[in-house]
Specification:
By secondary structure, the chain is mainly alpha-helical. It contains seven helices and no strands. The protein has a single domain, classed as Up-down Bundle (Growth Hormone, Chain: A). It is 78% helix and 0% strand.
């Protein structure tokens, strides 16, 4: 596998992980999570859910791979571009501040589902692009851990400009990763 493919996978994984951070910061006031002693536990649970969903996307694509032999790479690239386009659509969403003392389990489950959807599509697309599992885990796991650690340590990351900048960088990383895959096809 060439270095450019590793870079493409890394950029796409970083872009999705950065968007996950933004999405979680936009949907819930995280002060209650960080003041309670359960913030680290919740980050570990979210990381575990995302790893499972990544694997499910890869498995589901494995089931579909025999039927679409000639179109797999194009379907994968369209799926990755659709993630970036959806992120652009979400760009206009505003930060939602809640006044809850402690967010409900439903709030956390909404965040887990919303952030895992892109990870599922990424696992699916990377399987269709014939990226082996070891490459996926070597690139995706550090990216997810990096942004989960940032999300846990940056407790009051609700600055509108910082969120917009992170969104722009995440979208640019995904488009750059897709462009690298297009060049290598």
């Amino acid at each position: 596998m060439t270095l450019s493919i590793y870079i493409a996978v890394f950029l796409i994984a970083l872009g999705i992980a950065a968007d996950n951070l933004v999405l979680s910061k936009m949907t819930v006031n995280t002060v209650a999570f960080t003041k309670s002693g359960k913030a680290l536990l919740l980050q570990i649970v979210l990381f575990t859910i995302q790893l499972q969903v990544l694997k499910y996307g890869y498995w589901f694509a494995s089931l579909q791979s025999g039927t679409l032999k000639n179109l797999e790479k194009w379907i994968a690239l369209i799926m990755l571009v659709s993630i970036a386009l959806k992120m652009i659509q979400e760009f206009k969403f505003k930060t939602i501040h809640t006044n809850k003392t402690y967010p409900d389990l439903d709030d956390f489950l909404n965040i887990a589902f919303a952030t895992s959807l892109y990870v599922f599509v990424m696992g699916f697309a990377l399987r269709f692009l014939n990226i082996d599992q070891s490459t996926i885990y070597k690139t995706v796991i550090p990216c997810l851990l990096f942004f989960l650690t940032i999300g846990w340590s940056v407790k009051n990351f609700n600055s509108g400009k910082a969120i917009q900048l992170t969104k722009i960088i995440a979208i640019a990383m995904i488009f750059t990763g897709v462009l690298i895959f297009l060049i290598n096809i």
